[in-house]
Amino acid sequence: MQQTTATQPAAQSKSDNSVLLEVKHLKMYFPVTSGIIVQKKVADVKAVDDVSFFIRKGETLGLVGESGCGKTTTGRAILQLYKPSAGEIMFEGRDLCKLSGGDMRAMRRKMQIIFQDPYGSLNPRMTCGSIIGEPLIVHHLVKNRKEYQEQVAELLRIVGLNPYMADRYPHEFSGGQRQRIGIARALAVKPNFIVCDEPVSALDVSIQAQVINLLEELQEEFHLTYLFIAHDLSVVRHISDRVAVMYLGKIVEIANRDELYENPLHPYTKALLSAVPIPDPVVEAKRERIILTGDVPSPLRPPPGCNFHTRCPIAIPECKDLVPQLREVSKDHWVACIRAPGYNA
Amino acid sequence: MANLLSVKDLRTHFFTQDGVVKAVDGVSFDVQEGETLGLVGESGSGKSVTALTILRLIPQPPGKIVGGEVNFQGVDLLKVDEETIRKIRGAKIAMIFQEPMTSLNPVLTIGRQVTEALELHMKMNKSESRKRAAELLQMVGIPDPLRRLDDYPHQFSGGMRQRVMIAMGLSCNPKLLLADEPTTALDVTIQAQVLELVKKLSDELGTSVILITHNLGVVARYADRVNVMYAGKLIETASAKDLYADPRHPYTLGLLASVPRLDEPRKVKLVPIEGSPPDLTHLPKGCPFRPRCRFAVDRCAEEHPPLMPMGERHFAACWVDVRSRKPLPA
Q: Which of A173, A73, A193, A175 has the alpha carbon at shortest distance from A118?
């Protein structure tokens, strides 16, 4: 394969200053050790295994995949909540992996995260006002108490909560409200970029729509860029501009949203879409269903070659010989499958 | 078609420090032989408690089954003695629980757990039950079943554990299977595998299924009829086709409008249901959905609407015709 490793267009980004974030060959390996007195590394869990993509300013990149695919780990590694094992994270032209502690802390003003678990992500011993206001203090964004209180009140209003709730504790709020507090906290520092890590999965269906609408309004109002991590493909389709599909630590397909949903090329993407039930029995009765066999392999022992070949309905013997790289098969549509149409052209 | 199960005016309350929670408050429905009934609702709607009440698995205290009938094969399950209901649980009516991680006993092998029901209800001896258990694991798609009987739950993935639960549930050929959110904790592709399996087996064995879920897509794909619950009450019931084509309760309408769909053109904005799920210890007078309802009229604050006929075998508990916004005659 003489082709250059087909990552997301790195060449484009140099001249394209609309790119806010570029991830290059990110790897996140967690060592597995054995032994009681002396710990010896016996294996690596390759949670994120050579992932590359970019996100443009103001855009939402959806990152989908099932549990264990590495999407949450990717989001956290980008923000340096985990120290990447390898790779570069270019944010506004600087490699976050190489920044000093002080410089990184300053960068954190520009990048925030909303967590999945509205119950675990808020400190139960802090009032909601303190939780939201803490970043203002850490980053020296307010001059006095009055300014602090005004900003906290404004943030609560922005997310649709009443300012008098600032003195309440997390346990006094519902799941949906707690998620709004998490969003307000992320907005406090006026970031450019927010990693939304499954922000609505833990919420009831009727509340999900409220929070999704809020995230979309905020993106417009504050010109935010989102990395939206989720396993719910219907939600991702609604909010994303482009979508990347992950499987066992690798990106298998990445395309503009409509293109991915209308014309999925990777067999895993097709199976994933087919597995999502549509709330309409008449439509459902007519759909083609691709049911995958077997379970997701362990990331400790990923299959050789294409890591999806053990469950793939169209696998051929060659699939276990080499790891397929992401290749652009049509405009802005990249796929890592030797059997995808246009891949071997 | 005969009624396999007939639930009448079921009431289960929980007596807590904060007040009485009427988790199930006057629910009536039937399940026919071979039918899959979807029981849909969000957290706090009472759907799981309904299933647990049918099998009398409600912890008493703080819960109490305060009224109603559960008629199964000519017998009211709420009135039989403990010995009789134990013979029915696992044998004639089986249940699959939501969290496969915590529903299996972590210190017993899978073999021990699957054979338990076989030895108890089918009176098999050790070697017969072991053989049958391996067959059941094979049936649910677990590779190398004989060896895996000696493994522990933690050695299985979530999807496989759920399949073990299905094997246990179907082991004694029950007439009715209660599946309480059997795939909520699982990935989408595993969910598809597990639900296809339940469907295939229930078709083959003629088992009726009550499929409890909050996922409207799952219900559309697998249920014949659907019951929608809210705040402990049954607020709409219809065939799956009718419910999705012609929803008549504002809550159902709201749910369907707020869920993004893969096949529809992308809506610019989702239409959420305003407000929050109700506090079950402080329900308002009249209809519990009124505070969030766009169709509410004065009567809604006064009286709780009964299930009104809306079409063939289609009922909704609402004072208003959502198509015309006109109040319905009493």
A: A175
